[in-house]
Amino acid sequence: MQTIDKYNFKGKRAIIRVDFNVPLNKQTFEVTDDTRIRGALPSITKILGDGGSVILMSHLGRPDGKPQDKFSLKHAIPAIEKNIGKKLIFAGDCMGDEAKKITAAMKPGDVVLLENLRFYEEEEGKPYHLGENPTDEEKKAGKAKVKESQKAFVKTLASYADCYVNDAFGTAHRAHASTALIAAFFPNDSMFGFLIESELKAMDKILLAPEKPFTAIMGGAKVSDKILIIENLLDRVDNLIIGGGMTYTFIKAQGGKIGKSLCEEDKLDLALEILKKAKEKGVNVVLPVDAINADAFDANANTQISKINETPDGWMGLDIADESIKLISDVIEKSKTILWNGPMGVFEMEKFAKGTSSVAHAIAKATAKGAFSLIGGGDSVAAINKNKLADKVSYVSTGGGAMLEYMEGKELPGIKAVRG
After folding, report:
1. Which of 9, 97, 169, 393 is the most exposed place for a label (fewest CB within 10 A)?
2. How confident is the model at residue 145 (pLDDT cuts 50, 70, 90)?
3. Is position 36 annotated as part of the catalytic site?
4. Are strands 290-294 and 303-307 parallel, antiparallel or unpaired?
5. Whole-structure pTM value
């Protein structure tokens, strides 16, 4: 397998799958967070520095296989040009004569941006236009039709370039044309970009060689969303900290009172099974002991504090309280390897943000003392950024779903396609 640092791009057109699925202002369509664009810069810089040219391809939003102005990548052009420090050439369609002419005429140093790949249903391989209530036969026929046309779609994309670089970790878990199929057209000239390389290195450090004690912090709303990663981590971690809404499924499973807190009633047995497995494997499970409760899911709700297993009727837990913060922070600060995925509460509301912010600061303290910390998942990353701690942790992952699936032990299609 080729590696980007050793590959010579001189005179070559490199097509890069980037993740420019960036947030846009709904009125002005300006990019409001260019983190993903900045993440692609090292790979772009390397290619241009070698004397190559760059073709950028990405998706933006969910246009469901048809062009829509609000999902056009043209809106990202000012932010991309600002970051790369030069003008780019925009192909207003990733298919067709315009794209072919533009890419064929590229000179070393040129940067071309193709229009949104998901303007074509062939990118995702899904038949979107089947009308109301399609039959199973229609669905099957539609999918077969898209799969057939997908071959021509990916062949056209590949024809623009001499080599392929996948640097979109956020979509690596999707078996899409630009992530899982195109690499086959470059059997000796496909590779990962620097961003994916760093993502894999960080996750493999966690999965394959974690320094002890290893603490995983799993937050968020549902046990069902995290069950696979929890089960995969039970053989590796020393401490498993559980927070967020899914806490209450564990609390109720153990006979606690949870008021009207979020709970997956059909996952109570699963929660007990996790606790049983953890005990058998010698894993220290840390559950919150107290909570800030609210009488409504509202930023201005009335609040009170109770023991986590004594939530009054009519109240719901929306954040961890001081005893839990101290308990959890102490465990984190004594750790040498830390994985964090999911908030401790409804941190989008300032009144319920303290628990999540405290975890972020505890991780930063542990990192300063030599721990390796990996942050992944949209909410955890948002919390790290909100607290201005991105440079105080070891690694912030750009791919929430992809990171989760990799940590669950799954083989990601976009990774397999390049690794072979």
Report:
1. 97
2. confident
3. yes
4. antiparallel
5. 0.86
Which amino acid appears at position 414 of this protein? Answer: G
Among residues 126, 143, 222, 392, the one annotated as catalytic is 222
Kindly give the pairing relationship between strand 190-192 and strand 163-166.
parallel
Residue 222 designated active-site? yes
Does the annotation count 370 as an active-site position?
Answer: no
| Sheet with strand 316-320: strands edge to edge | 303-307, 290-294, 316-320
Choosing from 49, 109, 378, 409, the catalytic residue is 378
Active-site position among 61, 65, 92, 401: 401
| pLDDT tens column, 172-199 | 999 999 999 999 999 999 999 999 999 9
Q: Judge whether 52 counts as a catalytic residue.
A: no
Task: Report d(CA 189, CA 3) in Å as an integer.
Answer: 9
Q: Distance between CA 6 and CA 309 in Å, rounded?
A: 57
Catalytic residue among 12, 13, 36, 260: 36
Degrees to nearest 5, angle at CA 135 with 130 and 138: 55
Domains and CATH numbers, the chain: 13-196 (3.40.50.1260), 210-407 (3.40.50.1260)
Host H or E run for residue 240: strand 239-242
